[in-house]
Design brief:
It is a single chain. With 125 residues, this protein is mostly helical. It has a single domain, classed as Globins (Globin-like, Orthogonal Bundle). 62% of the residues lie in helices and 0% in strands. It is globular, with a radius of gyration of 15 Å.
Length: 125
């Protein structure tokens, strides 16, 4: 049997990705390192946007411009350690939802490619 379609389609589309993202943010909010980023954030709105972003990394019908990603993260001061913690939590959440290892790697690779737009460079480095 050959499975066709995008990863987004294979894993159940927006309904399933939304559940993954909700579980992801449950874990993020429990992280001593990350919770403060979300203290005054409209989580319903963020989950909606993040669902679309994760869907885009899976071949879903959504696109985000680099300019927009840079703009929405610029004021947050996200360092590399925080970014790595987020990707670690996302990978664990995807695994928990039964994503194949190669699909987890693909999603994380897509997000890693966006790190320069999200992570604040260290002075002198």
């Amino acid at each position: 049997m050959t499975v066709t379609g995008s990863m987004f389609e294979r894993y159940g589309g927006f309904a399933r990705v939304s559940k993954v993202v909700m579980a992801f943010y449950d874990r993020v909010l429990d992280s001593d390192r990350l919770w403060a980023y979300f203290e005054n954030v409209d989580m319903r709105r963020l989950i909606d946007h993040q669902t679309k972003f994760i869907a885009s990394t899976m071949g879903g019908p959504v696109a985000f411009t680099d300019e927009r990603l840079r703009e929405v993260h610029a004021h947050l001061g996200i360092d590399r350690g925080d970014f790595d913690e987020m990707t670690r939590i996302l990978a664990a959440t995807l695994e928990e939802f039964g994503f194949a290892p190669e699909d987890v790697a693909t999603v994380i690779r897509e997000i890693e490619a966006k790190a320069p737009l999200i992570v604040v460079p260290r002075p002198g480095g």
